[in-house]
Amino acid sequence: MARFLRFWLSPSPQRALVIGGSGSLGSSVISVFKNHWETTNLDFIENKEANYNIVVSPADDTEKHLAQANEVLKGKYDMILSTAGGWCQGDIESANVFSQVEMMMRNNVYPSVLAGHLATKYATETGIIVLSGSLLVFKENTPSMLAYGICKTMVHNIALNLSTKQNLTSENRIICLVPDILNTEVNRESMPSADHTKWVSPMKIAEKLYEWGDGKNVPENGSFITFKLDKDVTIEYM
Amino acid sequence: MARFLRFWLSPSPQRALVIGGSGSLGSSVISVFKNHWETTNLDFIENKEANYNIVVSPADDTEKHLAQANEVLKGKYDMILSTAGGWCQGDIESANVFSQVEMMMRNNVYPSVLAGHLATKYATETGIIVLSGSLLVFKENTPSMLAYGICKTMVHNIALNLSTKQNLTSENRIICLVPDILNTEVNRESMPSADHTKWVSPMKIAEKLYEWGDGKNVPENGSFITFKLDKDVTIEYM
């Protein structure tokens, strides 16, 4: 009740910009944040729960996406998150390895570069910037999913570079999520024999992100964070 | 004389395929190898010292480059090297960071993926595959040269993935070069106040690569190798 009153009396709610806010993690973030935050989604499709949408075309390059974002974004954002991501299987021998690298760049890397670039212009002085990596890639080489692995490694490296805060304030925090397999319908169906009981749902991750936005248990700048489900979902520093 | 006779009497010399064989390191490799090896260069411009050239267009994608390579390459190659590379300065805030990432992908990453892909088809059973990374990026975060750093990190990760040898033989070796600044005219001119006396020339690196091709002091599979100049050039495992 106290929190509701504080929000209700507040002249301007906190603001989140979600790159990839129509995907499984991004739409969970917008669902969790929407009651108390102003939310802006940048994605290939609209998210009707978001206050603002920047719908970009996969046929356009990231510079065009940036131009569209610059037309819509105003003021400063308390959280800027890239929840975009994509996965594919295939090794170096695959005839389509080159197009797989291009696809993984578009799905994983460019949204991260865009989030970082937008953060230099639109993050508040204490703003939190979140990128989305991969626990598997963080821990192991992944030759069977070469394009995915090398692109997620690049996301991890973008986070490390941003966390030097050359282009941000000393109070900004860059956090790289390195989740394990998410508990989504698609993942359960594609891995029917796996043990789903330990998989963390996107909603649970979104709730942790909301805590951070609310100033609670915010990981340190430069952290790589994964999520474990026991009775409850807990975060772990990698 | 003995070596010359051995080569002259040998029905088939050893064979090297150099991706980027017209660049500063690549042309040194072809100069050093050409007297005793058959050399094939794949690059945007011809190298007249090479026995064979596959001249590709920067306007075409890597799948097209691969198709051109498949038309020319025959048999097996004892060394497959990507000596391609490119550098640029610029941080996450740069308006052209997105096009810089694309350029660095084309200059550094796609040639490495192409070399790895071609190795699965054209490397001999004991063939050596060499990729070109960066000592600076291997050791540090490089936010001032973000696109370069994230793309060289990707090259390092490609090397780690290839060195699992999922798509190669147990006797193949993947070696990732992580040179410091090369002693080239361009580099000396662009960094006039630096101490050039410790910079290693591309020819010296090419001579080390030739030793490896000749079976001498070949680094272990999965090695990251740099070069130091004291009196002589020595290799160092990273």
Automatic annotation (TrEMBL), chains A, B:
Using the record, list the residue span of the signal peptide; answer none if the entry has no such feature. Answer: none
A Gene Ontology annotation in the biological process aspect, one of them, is: L-phenylalanine catabolic process
Report the EC number(s), separated by commas if there are several. Answer: 1.5.1.34
| Claim: Cell membrane is one of the keywords in the record | no
**At the top level of its lineage, which domain of life is listed?**
Eukaryota
Please tell me which top-level EC class this enzyme sits in. Answer: oxidoreductase
InterPro entries from the entry? NAD(P)-bd_dom_sf
Annotated keywords: NADP, Oxidoreductase, Tetrahydrobiopterin biosynthesis
Q: Does the keyword rRNA-binding apply?
A: no
A GO cellular component entry from the record: cytoplasm
Q: Which residues form a coiled coil?
A: none
Q: Which GO terms describe its molecular function?
A: 6,7-dihydropteridine reductase activity; NADH binding; NADPH binding
**Which family, according to the similarity comment?**
Belongs to the short-chain dehydrogenases/reductases (SDR) family.
Q: Its quaternary structure?
A: Homodimer.
Protein name (Swiss-Prot/TrEMBL): Dihydropteridine reductase
Kindly list the organism's lineage: Eukaryota, Sar, Alveolata, Ciliophora, Postciliodesmatophora
